[in-house]
Design goal:
This protein is α/β, with parallel strands linked by helices and about 350 residues long. It has three domains: about 5-50, no CATH class; about 60-165 and about 300-330, Rossmann fold; about 165-300 and about 335-340, Response regulator (Rossmann fold, 3-Layer(aba) Sandwich). About 45% of the residues lie in helices and about 15% in strands. The strands form two sheets. The protein has a six-stranded parallel β-sheet with strand order 2-1-3-4-5-11, sandwiched between helices. Strand 1, helix 5 (about 75-90) and strand 2 (about 95-100) form a beta-alpha-beta unit. Helix 8 packs parallel to helix 9. This is LacI family transcriptional regulator.
Length: about 350
Amino acid sequence: MNNSVTLKDIAKALNLSISTISKSLNDSHEISTDTKKLVLDYAQKHHYLPNRMAKGLKEGKSRSIGVVVCSLENNFAAQMLDGIDSASTDKSYQIIIMQSKESQKQERACIELLYAGGVDGILISPACETVDFSYLQSLQDSGLPVVLFDRLSDEIETHKVGADNFKGAYDATVHLIKNGYKSIAHLNTNTILNIATERLNGYKQALEEYKLPYRADFLRSCDYTDTKKLNADLEESIKYYMSLKKRPDAILTSTDQISTRCLALLNKLGYKIPEDIALIGFTNTDLADAFNPPLTTVHQPAFEIGQLAASKLISLIEKKSQEPEYETILLDTTIQVRASTRARK
């Protein structure tokens, strides 16, 4: 791999013996503080990963899989992790779960830690900040199996498993149209994630097919990185929609948090759903039936996404061939119809 170094490389670069380098990295009392600092700084700067090498040499395989998700609070993520756990346990692999909190910097730190810890492969659902996949790509090029799940990106060539977000949004929009709604707004995230663009494109495609105009003022984005900001953006968006001269009669929301919070905010602001405005959203919450009114949802096969992604990764780990044909697997979403999109009289 082009961006990690060996003990020998460090010794040569710093003009010290291999034994001095090794003792410095192991914090030996025989070595001066200055030398230790010099060695550690160099090792960190050049991605020296000691545990990984020691482990790899000793065991060959660690039977562990690193999993990086954006957040563990998310109901959808929990269901995917359940699927990952199920597939991994079946094959006697342990999983090490880390969260990026939507930060590219933290995501990279998670991957570095997992790699240094000697995992056999990495499953990752990228943070919304992540645009640069070169670090992950270099790990993959060095032979570490990588599978992207849920949030897929065109920025890296690898195996990918997710939901068919385009069709999910298309089906949701068609469901609204067939129930008599003609002015459909779309609340999305302010990210460049594939899921956001695919859902937007599915919504646009349905409008086009049913000869309804796409209105730019009906598309609003919310900041997804911070809960307070998300709530503020959502409230502002709903007030904006309802102040329009020709206001929407339905909203399609694109993520778990946006969908559930949008329903709560509409209720808080005193709007009747679906009489004043209908609502359909991407969410896997088990509480959809208990909401007021029960929420029509685009349900994603979260457990199956996790299970399939983990099975794919394990088969890559256990395969002998080094040249994989990369494949992208998209699973179908389902519309679960409830009172929030009742047909218009």
